[in-house]
Amino acid sequence: MKKLSQNQALELAFNTLQKNGASKENALPLAIGIIDAENQGIKSHGFHYLPIYCLHLKCGKVKGSANPVLNTRSEERRVGKECRSRWSPDH
Question: At 40, which CATH number?
């Protein structure tokens, strides 16, 4: 198995996402997230998930050219137990 440097891995993820329909603006943060997940040992959202992201781009489940805009920002911020999902183990 070939080992990649951080930059090579980022470039591979970025280029693969772009080839499958993600814009440069959307491919870069996602590629960074993939590399970050790998570095943290979260394999399920690292390179393991890259083909699935690409399938989502190809089938239209995800719009690779999306340009989200935040119009309003909530003033409410919750922390602690009230934020936990009722399905979380410590709820």
Answer: 1.10.1530.10
Q: Tell me: the pLDDT tens digits for 29-85? A: 999 999 999 999 998 889 999 999 999 999 999 899 999 887 877 776 655 555 544
Is residue 33 assigned to a domain? yes
Specify the pTM: 0.73
Distance, C-alpha 6 to centroid of its chain? 17
> Is the CB of residue 53 less than 8 Å from the CB of residue 30?
yes
